[in-house]
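Can't paste images in this forum, so I'm doing it all in text. The chain is below; anyone willing to post the predicted structure tokens underneath?
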Amino acid sequence: MARVGLGWWGRLAARLAAWPLPPYKSRRILARMNARGYISPRAEIVCADLTLGPHCFIDDGVVIYQHERGGGVRLGARVHLYRGTIIETGDGGAVVIGDDTHIQPGCHFTAFVGAIRLGAHVQVAPRCAFYPYEHGLAAGRPIRQQPLYSRGDIVVEDGAWLGVGAIILDGVTIGAGAVVGAGAVVTRDVPPGAIVAGVPARVIGDRATWQPPEDAR
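Text version of the structure:
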């Protein structure tokens, strides 16, 4: 385990360490055991400016890709990226993920023009997407040829929770401890501790006054 890393020898060491274990989350123990973390040999990482904190877990099928003009990717301590998650940077965008933040399967971080910054202890459910940029919409020109622009970085503060399939757009700050409901499209700031849902997302409650449903088990 001490030799696990990004190079070919590190990938081989990871494969050998994981061989006796069941797949998927059973292999998180390998990241806990080794300060260099666990990087699956089936992850695809093409990023010259990648910084990993101690005990990170990068699962099978994760992609981290830095385009020619893309910024860096910074993962804090004990960050978990689960399978099918894609992180890519381009046009000056960057990604920063804070300590103890977990990204569940199938999430997309597409950091072009603006940055994506997640704080510590953030929980991101499967299939969430982050887009800190937009395409121009001028008539008479294909969308693919339109310039990109951004209203600002995406910031998710400490302890927030994003439900399944939430989409976070450019210029949005999600406050500390806020909750974003499943399938929400967040187009404007979310106050700390607020509960938001819908398309576009709107405040429907606050964690300070939340009570479990009467029929909850």
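Residues 8-18 form the longest helix (11 residues). The two ends are 42 Å apart (CA to CA).
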